[in-house]
Amino acid sequence: MADFIWEKKIKVRRFAWGMGVGTGYAVLLMAVTFLTVHQISGDFKEMLMMFFLCFFGGTLGGILA
Questions:
Q1: pTM value?
Q2: Domains contained in the chain, number
Q3: N or C: which end of the chain has fewer CB within 10 A?
């Protein structure tokens, strides 16, 4: 939701900004998980799914804004 609001203010290459925000959010989630659990939980398939959901969610927010 924050990505959608932020993208309203940007007029150029909104989808690219959305991709960046989505990727940043995925990296933040992995970092917080690693810092709290001290291991990367889940298998590769789950991590890849989480990354693509964040990535495409940010991209979609940028496109719709």
A1: 0.73
A2: 1
A3: N
What stretch of H or E contains 24?
helix 14-37
User: Per-residue pLDDT tens for 7-63?
Assistant: 566 667 777 888 888 999 999 998 988 888 877 767 888 889 999 999 999 888 888
Fill in the DSSP letter of residue 65.
Answer: -
Contact by Cβ (8 Å): 7, 1: no
Answer for the pair 21, 58: CB distance below 8 angstroms, yes or no.
yes
How far apart (Å, rounded) are the C-alpha atoms in residues 46 and 9?
33
Average of per-residue pLDDT values in the chain: 82
Integer angstrom CA distances of residue 3 from 26, 34, 38, 40, 46:
13, 24, 29, 26, 23
Single-letter code of the amino acid located at 58:
G
